[in-house]
Design goal:
The longest helix has 20 residues. The chain is globular. It has a 4-stranded mixed β-sheet. A 3-stranded antiparallel β-sheet has the order 9-4-10. A hairpin with a 5-residue loop joins strand 6 and strand 7. Helices cover about 45% and strands about 10% of the residues. The chain starts with a helix and ends with a helix. With about 525 residues, the chain is an alpha/beta fold. It has 22 helices and 15 strands. The protein folds into 2 domains: about 230 residues, Periplasmic binding protein-like II (D-Maltodextrin-Binding Protein, domain 2, 3-Layer(aba) Sandwich); about 270 residues, Periplasmic binding protein-like II (D-Maltodextrin-Binding Protein, domain 2), CATH 3.40.190. Helix 10 packs across helix 20 and helix 11 runs parallel beside helix 12.
Amino acid sequence: MKKITLCLFLTLVLCTGIWAAGQSSTGSSVPQASISKEFTLPIVREPYSLTIMARENQTPTAPFYSSGQLPVWNEIERITGIKINWECTISNDYPQAVQTRLAAGVALPDMMTVHDPVPYLNQGVFINLDNLINDYAPDIKKVFDDNKDVKASMSNPDGIIVCIPTIPKDINLIHTKITVIREDWLDRLGLKMPTTMDDWYIVLKAFKTGPGMPSNVIPFHLPRRTNLTDARAFSAAYGLELPYASGYNVNANGRVFYDYQTENAKEFITFMNRLATEGLVTFSNDPEGMTNLANGIAGSYDGWTNTIVSYRQMLVRNEPNAKLVPAPFPTTRFNSKPTTISPYSCYEYGASMFITKDCRQPEIAMKWLNFLFTPAGMNLTNFGVEGVHFDLVNGKAVINDFYLKNPNGMAPAEVQRHIGCRPSIPFYMSRDYEEQIKMLDPLTADAIPLTFVASRPPTFPSVMPSPQEVSSLRSIQADFDTFVSEQISKFILGERPIGEYDRFITELDSRGLQDILRVKQAQYDRYRVMTR
């Protein structure tokens, strides 16, 4: 009797184990696929699927990821043998969708992008990736080995990699915001191209008051209603790092400081105040600014090169003799080198992939992610399908007539997301693609040498904070940021006298700046250790 009971018990345990091993994250019975450490394609020999939660395709007119109409992802499925079940939400709603799923904490997708992962780092929601990368992802491992800054940004405070990023590092030297200017207006007024901030004031004043200028002229248009300091070429001329690092900077001795507490910032804000009070700059949303540019009433504009091109074309249709060109990055006594602050080497977590605790075979998920960083995967996510969207010429991907003479009438820069390129999940952004697109238009082609010599990433790096660091700043950071934004806007618009800027500097300390700087210093020191 005891033997029979024991046999029944062992049989039950064995069956239960087999059943549990075959459960997917959604509870359906799915067989385990055999997987070796060697990276070969296809990744699996039998039908297999992974579920990914991510932002929906960011071009509204492009097909959804789940539509089956994106040739890039159909090809990736064919090559890897893995079908992706997409769970996507439009960008504005995505953070809330993620928060809801993670709060429930059950039946999570195999992989997901997460804008704010820090609250979940100690909850066991995401798995650590170091061993998976070492064992199953040779191409990702090489990327991290060759780019210690990227590895450090994707690691938790203990130095363990927790997510795989989108990496724009190779394109940042040529893909950044520029200031464009009406060169024909300069010629009309007998002015030279401005190269210093003093030159810029003279030019903008002439645009406003010079003979023959439009009565409703906008000398300089800044496409921001809320962040009035986002004139990136101008702020960088004063040695400031306001984009991306939010004004946190690092001196030559490795000490973190806050840009707005410097004499540089005071002079920059004074300059912007002068422009605003004299009617030389207009702040509005981006579409309004582009419309002003196209209608021929804006003399200069701060924006992304790819976006400006289409409006330049509209401008030329309205004014055939108009000539919009990129301006050199200006200098001041604070910074004698033309400079622009480019994005970080890797995008932060909203475009980075985490593997969840409910992923039934993380090895397969990691191998699939690794494919995106192989030469074939990089060509697919940047250019499209070989022979359809691009050709290999001497081993290099070159866009073909699908981009240049698109059958649907799309401009070359519009094609990518309509075929599934430039996804909302990790990939390595190609400088070859970026250069080929930019060389198609004189404006963006002329901008390449200017941005190439001026671009550099922020001195203060992208660092994943610890839950303790987030907790320690929770009571002050949001109010501090709001206070700074409000006061800087008041200074620029003349609602608070510039003469009170020194008082503003002391007010920052009373609102917790020194506590923030202590945390930022710890993060920077940790980053330096990780990148040695």
